[in-house]
Amino acid sequence: MTAERSVSGWDDYPVHQTSEFIRHVATSDRNFYDRYYFNLHPSSDEYFAIFGLGQYPNLGTTDAFLAVTKDGTQRIMRTSKPLEDRMDISVGPMRVEIIEPLEKLRVIVESNDADIAMDVTWTASIPAFEEPRQYLRSRGTVVFDTQRFAQMGRWEGTLTVAGEDIAVTPDRCGGSRDRSWGVRPVGEKQPDGIRQSISVMPGMWNYMPIDFGDHSIVYMCHQRPDGVRPLEEAVRVWADPKRPVEWLGTPEWDHDMISGTRLLSGSRITMPDAPEGPITIAARPLVTNFISIGTGYGFEEDWRHGMWQGDNEVVQALTYPVDEIRGLAQYGVVDSVGEFTYGDQVGYGLYEHGFFGPFPAMNLHDRGDLHP
Question: Is 31-181+199-362 a CATH 2.40.370.10 domain?
């Protein structure tokens, strides 16, 4: 490991917001993070790829993952190393290249033991949309204080899965991305204490950015077990940057949950107060990527986002039959390729949901309950 330095290439740019070097963020909260998320799909049930890369300045680490679900198998590659220069957005065989900010980015994952790789370029199809800030305090502790922007885009390049090179073309392959930063639980488990009684984000989480061609609709909702919504949004973002973002009013959800699970088989999302009249979007999942397994988002005690993996770069490969991980993964965040329809519009995008702990509105009355 090289000697610790504060100065980096970023410090040559006039982007400072405090008296610190860019390497040092304005808060000493251990949970500060800065993250990329991308997903890639062919608007069908053929496969679903998700990539993420994060930096955790106060934990001194950076990590990344690629998770691909195809033909009933989920393949994961994950990598971690000590964080030094924040301009370096690479971790081992994974890297992000910013070709044109907010317009064009390249994501590269070199060949590895997980038998997945890709070299793909993402081009924005809508302007970056500034999502509402997420702020959650529980028992006196700030557990979420994050900012995020989102975009829909099209992909071009090659995705390799189990030795098969798959052509990724913009006429078929789309996806969403987001950039988020701020404070959320990361790194090693903290001492229990009062945290034993804290649920980080209890209740229901929905996040659905949807590409309809000349416009996208972004719906999100965090609803607590008592019905209170700390966060909600429903907007239409036009591909034409000259057209303003349209607020569609308060969204209402109606979900179909599979009996004996916490997984959704379909939804209807209604915006009764949309400017041009009520909108109801019907949604159904096509193929699911259980990102709470193996990527750092979920349950592993030995691999969480920002967890220190040692002084040297670490690269690991994991392979799971989807049927074997579904039972545990349903208690975390679940990402699917979704097909969405309203009126004569058909679109595709991310169908993300999670039900954490009790949520009586879906007949989940205890932390471990499954839908009757």
Answer: yes
Residue 210's nearest CA partner among 38, 339, 36 is: 339
Helix residue ranges, H only, the chain: 322-329
At 318, which amino acid appears?
L
**How deeply is 367 buried, as exposed, middle or buried, from its count of CB atoms within 10 A (0-12, 13-18, 19+)?**
exposed
What is the reported pLDDT for 188? 86
pLDDT tens-digit series, residues 328-369: 999 999 999 999 999 999 999 999 999 999 999 999 999 999
How many angstroms separate the CA atoms of 213 and 346, rounded? Answer: 9
User: Tens digit of pLDDT for each residue in 261-313?
Assistant: 999 999 999 999 999 999 999 999 999 999 999 999 978 889 999 999 999 99
The helix (H) or strand (E) run that includes residue 336 is strand 334-342
CA nearest to 142, candidates 62, 28, 224 = 28
Residue 176 in contact with residue 170, Cβ under 8 Å?
A: no
Short-list 351, 123, 103, 126, CA closest to 236: 126
